Every structure is written in structure tokens, then in C-alpha cells.
């Protein structure tokens, strides 16, 4: 039996989301329990096939073998089923995962502008994501695509990291080649250096994520010299903060500036590793009221969930195609 035929046990309910080469569907089993299926489909020339297959298997292996706290649960996987058409190979993978009811941080932060979110909640989110990624790094992995859309929150305010499509296990001397991730989170050395430390690249991306949570805006469009905000941050740092402070209409505390100057700095070696952040940066030690924060996040997740349902009812998220 084809491994993909295992999906026959499930009924597709609706499309939950999508990515670059991905569709995520909500499915239901006979007992009416809901899951999501992430289907990754690629058409590749034969010479790139083996490389991409290895890359795709990463997510399957990592999520199946490692059960990191604060990450999505994976129940079943189907590693690369290939069909040959002429010079091209089509590879289809799927992951059957727990369905996280709520929304991703991109959805949630877009609501921030409309409601005044409590500082307690923002700090809770920062501490929570830091905790999850610290554990991932401590176990010797890197995520390489840390961004708001890859962090989900459910109706109870629980935070969960998804999308290990670029993640990998590294060893002490590991260095990485190539540009990975999504702007504006991409570390500058990915563009400029032939090889770099992938953990420090994650440190940069997590720094941008925390910036986006705290201020609900991006620090720059891209971490390249020709981006005026990034150029200012790098070479006229005080001016960057003055302009930014004016833009958001608030005074930025020196300890917050110091934190971002370190973790978003161009000197990757000088960036503090994640397991040092809480001891080095006191703003991350702030005692938060977890119950209150989770209640606020949960109600925003509820709102996002309702907005998604409305969009589906209007046909904006139709199930398209078949497995
Ligand atoms: N377990 C889940 N429960 C609910 N929704 C999910 C789940 N996994 C993914 N999604 C939704 O589907 C979207 C795409 O999933 P995912 O990020 O894993 O795919 P991707 O192709 O790797 O994305 P990208 O290429 O944009 O990084 C997510 O942003 C999220 O909205
Ligand atoms: Mg994603």
C-alpha cells in the first residue's frame, strides 16, 4: 500500500494554512478527532533530488525523534514518495500533527495594534519563546527559521513552535553555508560570509522576533547594508534608537537597547548564546503573571480562530486539490 494511502483514514475538513511549497489541512479521523496534515510537494530536476530529499527528511526525523517541550507534536510521517515524470521528480511528504487551535504570532501581533496589549503579556511571550529555543539549542539543534509565523498560540495561551523544515542537528564545530530563513530575521553573516555559526544566526533571528513582540514592528526590512534602518543600526546606532523611539512614541530603556545591540549585532561571536540571556539581560528576569498573560493570549487566539472560521465560510480558505 502506498504510504500516502494511509491518509484515506482521514477526512479533509478545510485548509488550515500554507507555506512556500506546503499545504496544511485540518483532517478528522473516524472518531472525529481533529489533526493537521502538512503536505510538502516539490517538483525537482533529478540532480537536486537526493539533496532536497535529505533536507525534507530533517523535519520528519527531528520532530519524531526529539520531543522538545513547547513544540508541535507529530504523530505520523511519510518520508518522500517520489514519482518520475520525464526529467523531473515529484516528491510528496506529509506530517500528521496535533492541531493547534488558535493562530500564529503573525496573526496575533497584527491584532496588537488594535488593542492595547499588557506589558506583562509581551514579557511572558518573550520569556516563553526564549525558553523553548534555549532547550532546542541545548540539545544541539538549530531551527534556522525563527519568525512570528512559526510560533503558534492556542486557546489556552500555550505557546508552540512549528516548522522544523530547515532545522538541523549540529556539532560543536559546526558551520553553516548558505542563506536560510525569512527576512527581516536573516542574520547578516548569512549574506556576507562563506560559512558561519548557525546557532548565532538563530540568536539574531530570535532577537528580531523579540523586537517584533515588544514593539509590534520590524527593526528593518532586511539586514543588508542598503537598508537604511539596518545601516543606521550598525554604524549610527544612537541615531537608529532616536529615530525609532520617535517613531513608536516611547523612550526605549537603556537595558532594552543594550540587549538588542548585543543580540542583533553584526559581530556574531559577540552575540550572547541563548542560555546566557536571562542572566545577562535583567529585563528577561521580570516576574510575570502567567495566568493573566495566558488568558490574554488565549482570548486573542480565540479571536484569530473566529476570523479564520469567517474567512473559511466566505470561501477564502477552500480545500483545493487532493492528496
Ligand atoms: N499543527 C498546526 N496546527 C494548526 N495550524 C498549523 C499547524 N502547523 C502549521 N499550521 C499553519 O500552517 C502554516 C504553514 O505551516 P508551516 O510553517 O509548517 O509550513 P511552511 O511551508 O514550512 O511555512 P513557510 O514556508 O511559510 O515557513 C502555519 O503558519 C500555520 O498557520
Ligand atoms: Mg512556516
Strand content: 15-25%
Poorly predicted segments: 319-323
The succession of helices and strands, N to C, reads EEEHEEEHHEEEEHHHHHHH
Distance between the termini: 15 Å
Q: Number of helix segments?
A: 10
Ions, cofactors, ligands: which are bound? adenosine-5'-triphosphate, magnesium ion
Task: Indicate the overall shape.
Answer: globular
Q: What oligomeric state best describes the polypeptide chains here?
A: single chain
Tell me, what is the CATH class of the largest domain? Mainly Alpha
Structural category: alpha+beta
**What is the CATH topology of the largest domain?**
Transferase(Phosphotransferase), domain 1
Walk across the major sheet and give the strand order: 1-2-3-5-4
On the 0 to 100 scale, the average pLDDT is 88
The percent range for helix content is 25-40%
- Please state the second-level CATH architecture of the largest domain: Orthogonal Bundle
CATH fourth-tier homologous superfamily of the largest domain:
Transferase(Phosphotransferase) domain 1
How much is the radius of gyration in Å? 21 Å
Amino acid at each position: 500500500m502506498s504510504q500516502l494511502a494511509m491518509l484515506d483514514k482521514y477526512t479533509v475538513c478545510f485548509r488550515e494554512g500554507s507555506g512556500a511549497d506546503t499545504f496544511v489541512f485540518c483532517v478528522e479521523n473516524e472518531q472525529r478527532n481533529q489533526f493537521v496534515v502538512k503536505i510538502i510537494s516539490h517538483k525537482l530536476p533529478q540532480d537536486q533530488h537526493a539533496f532536497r530529499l535529505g533536507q525534507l527528511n530533517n523535519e520528519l526525523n527531528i520532530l519524531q525523534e526529539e520531543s522538545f517541550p513547547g513544540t508541535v507534536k507529530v504523530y505520523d510521517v511519510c518520508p518522500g514518495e517520489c514519482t518520475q515524470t520525464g526529467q523531473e521528480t515529484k516528491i510528496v511528504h506529509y506530517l500528521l500533527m496535533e492541531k493547534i487551535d488558535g493562530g500564529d504570532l503573525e496573526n496575533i501581533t497584527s491584532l496588537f495594534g488594535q488593542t492595547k496589549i499588557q506589558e506583562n503579556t509581551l514579557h511572558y511571550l518573550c520569556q516563553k519563546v526564549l525558553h523553548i529555543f534555549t532547550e532546542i539549542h541545548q540539545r544541539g539543534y538549530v531551527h534556522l527559521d525563527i519568525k512570528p509565523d512559526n510560533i503558534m498560540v492556542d486557546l489556552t495561551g500555550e505557546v508552540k513552535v512549528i516548522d522544523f523544515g530547515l532545522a538541523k542537528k549540529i556539532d560543536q564545530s559546526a558551520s553553516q553555508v548558505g542563506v536560510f530563513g525569512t527576512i527581516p530575521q536573516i542574520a547578516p553573516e548569512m549574506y556576507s560570509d562563506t560559512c558561519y555559526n548557525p546557532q548565532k544566526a538563530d540568536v539574531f533571528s530570535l532577537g528580531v522576533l523579540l523586537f517584533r513582540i515588544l514593539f509590534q514592528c520590524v527593526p528593518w526590512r532586511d539586514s543588508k547594508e542598503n537598508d537604511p534602518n539596518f545601516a543606521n543600526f550598525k554604524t549610527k546606532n544612537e541615531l537608529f534608537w532616536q529615530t525609532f523611539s520617535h517613531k513608536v512614541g516611547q523612550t526605549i530603556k537603556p537595558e532594552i537597547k543594550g540587549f538588542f545591540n548585543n543580540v542583533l549585532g553584526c559581530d556574531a561571536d559577540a552575540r550572547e548564546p541563548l542560555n546566557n540571556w536571562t542572566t545577562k539581560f535583567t529585563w528577561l528576569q521580570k516576574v510575570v503573571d502567567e495566568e493573566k498573560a495566558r488568558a490574554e493570549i488565549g482570548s486573542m487566539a480565540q479571536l484569530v480562530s473566529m476570523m479564520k472560521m469567517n474567512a473559511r465560510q466566505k470561501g477564502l480558505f477552500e480545500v483545493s486539490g487532493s492528496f
